[in-house]
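User: Hi! I'm working on a homework problem where we have to compare a predicted structure to a textbook description. Could you give me the structure for the chain below?
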Amino acid sequence: MLVLVMINLLIIVHEIRFSFAILEPVDFLALQSIRKSLEDMPGSNFFSSWDFTSDPCNFAGVFCDGDRVVALNLGDPRAGAPGLSGRLDPAIGKLTNLAEFTVVPGRIMGKLPATLSELKKLRFLGISRNFISGEIPATLGELQGLRTLDLSYNQLTGSVPWAIGSLPALANVVLCHNHLSGSIPSFVSQTLTRLDLKHNNLSGSIPPGSLPSSLEYLSLSWNSFSGPVDLLLPQLNRLNFLDLSLNRFTGQIPSCVFSFPITNLQLERNLFSGPVQPFNEVAIPTVDLSHNMLYGQVSPLFSTVQNLYLNNNRFTGSVPTTLMDRLMAGNVQLLYLQHNFLTGVPINPMAAIPLSSSVCLQYNCMVPPVQTPCPIEAGTQKTRPTSQCMEWKG
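Assistant: Happy to help. Predicted structure tokens:
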């Protein structure tokens, strides 16, 4: 009988031991160091549950598997939460079983700890909308299982490490709104679907083959990228978002981009040149090709676009009749053609443009047949000087 009682007691002790596993001491000490280097901002009480006399696996943002921390989400994840201040302690590298590490928006400053490279099991790294400065550690290229890298809206400088491009499992790279410079690496991951580098100081050309065909979202706007894209973009036929605006891209716009399954094509404010010739009727609701050096006649295949920005280019000839007919029917909501070299618009001067539509025709090689409101930046001159119209041959 006594033996049976002892056996039952041992079973109970065994169950208690494994249902309330003691956290690995290395992880325990790492969490202590991380806590000491961070503070709740006024209005935040994220760390109120971080009482190290209790089980750290019950702390807010700490997730365990057995006696190891596998996910650490620092800060209240609710929208509008005040966030944290302080710095990221290098002890983060001691949490070697970590698969996910995120930090909510706040006022965390300083550099990214180089010890992040010790988190070999890390799949998700998201530290956005803080004040992280310095360079992206090239040693992040050692995280072979990393799928998401989000360091957006910080103050990072330097280049995008070439080792980042060699990561084989990347699916999302979001480095927008920093101060990164230099050229970007080639990305080898065939699972990369999102690449967001907008609002940096990046430059150089993007050779064909440097971006995988798996990409669905590509935003490079507000940089200084240059060179042609006529061989690059045809390889990216899965794109459902494309923004190359405010760069220095050159050459022709490949016809295939007008067939991409996207809702907003943003190629404005570059140095694109040549004629624009879609293969078929364009099904993209908004197309912005403004402020380039495009020339030739406006294609009637743009008549199916709802918002069409062709202003500040070098288009010549007459506006397609089908485009004006759809405008008058209210199907084209916005048509900006100002600051080109157009010579005709098939519209009755007495016709009333629908209230739901807007068209700007000023500063072309003609007197606008109808007077319509134009954006302020279009200026006040209605017609381009004759001397310019004689010089420009398209």
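For your comparison, note the following. The chain is about 10% helix and 25% strand. Residues 267-394 form a domain with the Leucine-rich repeat, LRR (right-handed beta-alpha superhelix) fold (CATH 3.80.10.10). Good luck with the assignment!
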